[in-house]
């Protein structure tokens, strides 16, 4: 997938992450407390944000890759978070879901709206059968969001992640196309 699919929801535009998003991305990914559940250490500077943008762009050129969208409010341009499908296993028609949103924009349903759109895109356009998510057991907002989206917990992965200088357990969730309800999509 070289061309990038821009997606629209009632309140959001989901578009390719651009170099001009580096400052907003740094504000989100540079916040140690906010990123404690993300699965990687915080970004230290603007160069780190630009490298992350380059990583997102490179995913579309790799055989086992993905796509990462910038979440942007339709009435107020500027990145408020990102969401994506990555680690695609094309033969198995599966991938992993990831997302983060700026603290100022949490609690408004934007993440749910964005994820509904990319899940629908994944099942319809890419013909995925399974979308997985791994979440820290203490990340209550993400656990609630995945449940609202229809994901089911499948297991507990002991010390599966490593960031902030230590190993972390992760809960394994998945949503199958056969269980996905098109009535809950945007």
Q: Could you name the key traits of this structure?
A:
single chain; 4 helices; 24% helix
Characterization of the model:
With about 190 residues, this protein is of the alpha+beta class. It has a single domain (about 5-185), classed as Aminopeptidase, CATH 3.40.630.30. The protein has helices at about 20-30, 45-60, 110-125, 140-150, and strands spanning about 5-10, 10-15, 65-75, 75-90, 95-100, 130-135, 150-165, 165-175. α1 crosses α2 (about 45-60). It starts with 6 loop residues before the first strand and ends in a 10-residue tail after the last strand. The model has no long low-confidence stretch (mean pLDDT about 90).
SSE layout and pairings?
Elements lengths: L6 E2 L3 E5 L5 H8 L16 H13 L8 E7 L2 E14 L4 E8 L8 H15 L5 E6 L4 H9 L3 E12 L2 E11 L10
Parallel strand pairs: 5-6
Antiparallel strand pairs: 1-2, 2-3, 3-4, 4-5, 6-8, 7-8
SSE string: EEHHEEEHEHEE
CATH architecture: 3-Layer(aba) Sandwich
CATH domain class = Alpha Beta
What number is the mean pLDDT?
Answer: 88
Catalogue the unreliable spans.
none
First-residue to last-residue Cα separation: 23 Å
Q: Helicity level, as a percent range?
A: 10-25%
- Oligomeric assembly: single chain
Structural class: alpha+beta
Proportion of residues in β-strands: 25-35%
What gyration radius follows from the Cα positions, in whole Å? Answer: 16 Å
Strand order of the largest sheet: 1-2-3-4-5-6-8-7
